[in-house]
Design a protein that fits this description.
The chain is globular, with a radius of gyration of 15 Å. A 4-stranded mixed sheet has the order 2-1-3-4. It is built from 3 helices and 4 strands, in the order βαβββαα. It is α+β, with helices and mostly antiparallel strands.
Length: 108
Amino acid sequence: MNWFSKANPTPLPGAVEWVDRPWGQALVLVCQECDGAPGLNGADGLKAAKATVRSVASKKQARVTGSGCLDVCPKGGIAVALSADGAPTRCLVVRSLSNIHDLSEVLS
């Protein structure tokens, strides 16, 4: 059963109405709770991810935001989850700021 579709407008009792998302194709979540390698933390990762995504997509095409723990961050890395239309959600482990710049390849 697909609980999250406009075909099923009331997926849960008392749910609010569906609204269209303000971004078009992708949502990128960056863990804000875990610290990665030295010099890499959630705040730096979010800033770098936003800059990287903006280099290949407008704010209307892709939204980048911080999240709570995604429960997949290994020691020395932070998790970045990417959900795009027509593709399964993927979680990436970022171990340096230069790895975040690789997001542009994943999104293009």
